[in-house]
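2024-03-11 09:14:02 INFO worker-7 job=invfold-0412 stage=load source=structure_tokens
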């Protein structure tokens, strides 16, 4: 009998579309197995009275053990003392890590919605501070600017006006009708289509309901731990993401808005490490499962647990990717420092910003470096950044040429040999 009320199948919270392909336990049909799982889940379900579907029925969620396990890891890993390559806690030396993560999220979040430019070109645009040259670059530029702005508002409550301003920033100069930037859609001809065959996957609520729905969403986003039902802050951030996707309140840019608001909610709740991760980088690798997570909720009696589990897994993978990135950067910088340490002459010649640049240059021959990009990466004044690059050029470690009105420095092919000569 205990097996019959278990909400999980082999430890997993499965949707019927997943369960129907599996062999049921002995003595149960698939339908009977599903009925037992639904019965087991019924006692776990909590309603979300502020979050309603198109029929004004509340969405629900459950916190079975897979959800609790993921939350435990995120609570631990998104607030720990993660170390940088200089052995300082990452939030005490944040500039280069935060800038890189904002770039990654801006690029991949825009690529999820159709931006078609290479990461290298887009990253160079943001680091150099040049104006975007086409629609794809404009989407990425807007996303970077909006994410940076939103994180500065993490102490503020969210409002409909703030969400509209965020959308305006995200979509400026990218929409067919520019009047749609920063305003709720006014028509009901919006559908979410399967990009493979253009079949309709979701029809959002009518436009006349959007102002009230947005107000309800803001009330949900701003609720605290005293509100009932209690919703863990990470789940609240994910549900905010979900509802923007479900309501589709704008003619375009809904996904970018949803993911940006997720970051705001996580930052507001103290999950500071998420500012250094990119969930869109993970989602872009599995866009189909991202959409399926939405559909499983809509076809699963408004049970958002399916979407919660998908996004919890995405968050954990994004955090793991950050750890891998930091480990790689630590190894690269250690190699550079060992190379420099072999020579008493070089040992104290470079500051930490120059070491970071040399580390990158050793692995990226031909890469270009500009003063303004170096300034943004390390959050220093222009003169400090200029001095860093000029001194490296004077030592023969960077080549220099003029590109338009700007001077550009390049990593030479034989940088390691030049360092070895300089060390003698």
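2024-03-11 09:14:09 INFO worker-7 stage=emit residues=424
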């Amino acid at each position: 009998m205990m097996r019959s009320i278990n909400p999980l199948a082999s430890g997993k919270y499965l949707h019927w579309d997943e369960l129907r392909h599996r062999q049921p336990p002995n003595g149960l049909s698939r339908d009977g197995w599903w009925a037992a799982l639904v019965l087991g889940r019924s006692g776990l379900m909590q309603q979300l009275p502020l979050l309603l579907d198109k029929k004004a029925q509340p969405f629900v969620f459950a916190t079975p053990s897979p959800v609790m396990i993921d939350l435990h890891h995120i609570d631990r890993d998104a607030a720990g003392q993660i170390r940088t390559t200089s052995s300082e806690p990452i939030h005490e030396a944040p500039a280069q890590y935060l800038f890189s993560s904002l770039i990654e999220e801006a690029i991949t979040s825009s690529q999820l919605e159709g931006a078609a430019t290479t990461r290298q070109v887009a990253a160079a645009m943001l680091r150099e501070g040049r104006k975007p040259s086409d629609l794809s670059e404009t989407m990425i530029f807007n996303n970077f600017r909006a994410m940076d702005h939103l994180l500065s508002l993490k102490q503020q409550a969210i409002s409909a006006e703030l969400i509209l301003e965020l959308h305006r920033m995200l979509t400026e100069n990218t929409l067919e009708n520019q009047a749609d930037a920063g305003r709720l859609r006014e028509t009901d001809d919006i559908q979410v289509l399967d990009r493979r065959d253009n079949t309709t996957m979701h029809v959002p609520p009518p436009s006349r309901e959007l102002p009230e729905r947005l107000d309800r969403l803001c009330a949900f986003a701003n609720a605290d731990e005293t509100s009932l039902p209690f919703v863990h802050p990470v789940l609240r951030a994910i549900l905010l993401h979900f509802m923007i996707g479900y309501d589709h309140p704008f003619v375009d840019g809904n996904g970018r808005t949803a993911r940006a608001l997720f970051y705001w909610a996580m930052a507001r709740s103290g999950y500071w490490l998420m500012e250094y991760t990119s969930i869109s980088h993970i989602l872009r690798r599995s866009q189909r499962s991202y959409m399926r997570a939405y559909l499983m909720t809509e076809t699963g009696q408004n049970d958002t647990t399916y979407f919660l589990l998908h996004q919890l897994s995405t968050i954990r993978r994004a955090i793991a990717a950050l750890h891998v990135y930091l480990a790689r950067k630590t190894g690269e910088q250690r190699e550079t420092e060992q190379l420099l340490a072999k020579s008493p002459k070089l040992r104290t010649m470079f500051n930490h910003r120059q070491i970071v640049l040399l580390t990158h240059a050793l692995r990226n021959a031909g890469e270009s470096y500009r003063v303004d990009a170096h300034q943004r990466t390390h959050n220093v004044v222009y003169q400090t950044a200029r001095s860093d690059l000029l001194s490296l050029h004077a030592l023969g470690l960077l080549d220099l040429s003029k590109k338009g009105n700007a001077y550009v420095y390049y990593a030479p092919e034989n940088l390691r040999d030049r360092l070895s000569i300089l060390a003698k």
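2024-03-11 09:14:09 INFO worker-7 stage=report msg="The CA atoms of residues 287 and 319 lie 19 Å apart."
2024-03-11 09:14:10 INFO worker-7 job finished
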